[in-house]
Specification:
globular, 382 residues, four-stranded mixed sheet, Rossmann fold, alpha/beta
């Protein structure tokens, strides 16, 4: 059966890896739509390479530039609702949701409403609105397939037993570039140092999140929603080699782990071909070069963002939306050189502590909460 693939976030690192996978899968995967924010030159090349007929850029000026790129026959949408319209109107059966941050939520929800299969690389959709997205997916028959390497690993390991037999899920974390640094040095890390990830090649926002371990905090919340587990059953272990992507421990003490080279093409391909497996297009693990695998408990004093993820997961309601919004604003400010690295955690913690908890928010209330927190954090920075 041919997959008709629509990629949201096609010009980012996940989107580019997905296009590599689509090319490797050949006729069994046809790219029918591409969506992104503003990188129109990169998208123009992707449209030509895959003969894509539907595309969208959420920034109007970028969409206008794309329209002038001599792409005959391609329908190009632009503006705030362009990505949602792309999902609603494109003849796709699989949507890869890979737009960074809460900006990917509206289009992801549109895909859920259509009952499409979704490869979920946008963890923020569940962090912000898991209480809305998961029940909606159940009603529409939407299948959510995790693409994050950690959640894909858990998804695969869970096939070894029944859900009621699960004792805990163990998410692995690389530890980022500051795994062995002293806390005082981490506090004042430079932008260049924070962007130097030891094992993964990712976009700037997620790379900073890895350096603070906020990425793992958000993944804890995502795992709770995806696998219907309380926070107490989701643990994190630091594994600098990034070979064991995550594990599931069952009641009898058996631990099933998924291993592989640190290459995002592997979990993307698994989602696209599920429940089957195709010949690998990603990097294969070379066992002759593998000398050791190390594991250690995360240091919550040096990486306090991870504690915030557990707090938000336990509180539920709008806590995930608060944490995510504050972090996105703080990371942006750090990358612009307006705050110190250590301020990212303090701003996120302050937002989580001061913003009122709503236990059962509507989608409109979550979106309003997101906007309000962003405004507050920007004011604190100023």
């Amino acid at each position: 059966m041919q997959r008709r693939l629509l990629i949201l976030g096609s010009t980012g690192s996940i989107g580019e890896s997905a296009l590599d996978v689509a090319a490797a899968l050949g006729p069994s995967c046809r790219v029918v739509g591409l969506g992104a924010r503003r990188r129109w030159r990169e998208m123009a090349e992707q449209i030509r390479r895959f003969a894509v007929h539907d595309a969208a850029l959420s920034e109007d000026d970028a969409a206008e530039s794309l329209r002038g790129a001599s792409l005959n026959g391609t329908r190009i949408r632009g503006g705030a609702r362009a990505l949602v319209e792309l999902v609603e109107q494109t003849d796709a059966d699989f949507v890869l949701s890979a737009i960074v941050g809460a900006a990917g939520l509206p289009a992801t929800l549109a895909a859920v409403e259509r009952g499409l299969t979704i490869g979920l690389a946008n963890k923020e959709s569940l962090v912000v609105a898991g209480s809305i997205l998961m029940p909606l997916a159940e009603r529409t028959g939407c299948r959510l397939l995790p693409v994050d390497s950690e959640h894909s690993a858990v998804f695969q390991a869970l096939r070894s037993g029944r859900r009621e037999e699960v004792r805990r899920v163990i998410l692995t974390a690389s530890g980022g570039p500051f795994r062995s640094w002293e806390r005082s040095r981490i506090e004042n890390a430079t932008i260049a140092e924070a962007l130097k990830h030891p094992t993964w090649q990712m976009g700037p926002k997620i790379t900073i999140d890895s350096a603070t371990m906020m990425n793992k905090a958000l993944e804890v919340i995502e795992a709770c929603w995806l696998f219907q587990l309380p926070a107490e059953q989701v643990e994190v272990v630091v594994h600098p080699e990034s070979i064991v992507h995550s594990m599931v421990e069952f009641r009898d003490g058996s631990i099933i782990a998924q291993l592989g080279a640190p290459d995002m093409r592997t979990p993307i391909q698994y989602a696209l071909t599920y429940p089957l497996r195709a010949d690998a297009c990603g990097e294969r693990l070379n066992w002759s070069e593998l000398r050791q695998l190390n594991f250690s408990a995360p240091d919550l004093e040096r990486f306090p963002c991870l504690s915030l993820g557990y707090e938000a997961a336990r509180r539920g309601g709008n806590a995930g939306a608060v944490l995510n919004a504050a972090n996105e604003v703080a990371v942006e400010a750090f990358l612009e050189g307006r705050i110190r690295f250590g301020d990212i955690h303090r701003l996120a913690a302050r937002a989580l502590q001061t913003h009122p908890l709503q236990s059962d928010p509507t989608l409109d209330e979550l979106l309003a909460c997101d906007a309000r927190v962003r405004q507050e954090v920007r004011q604190w920075i100023c």
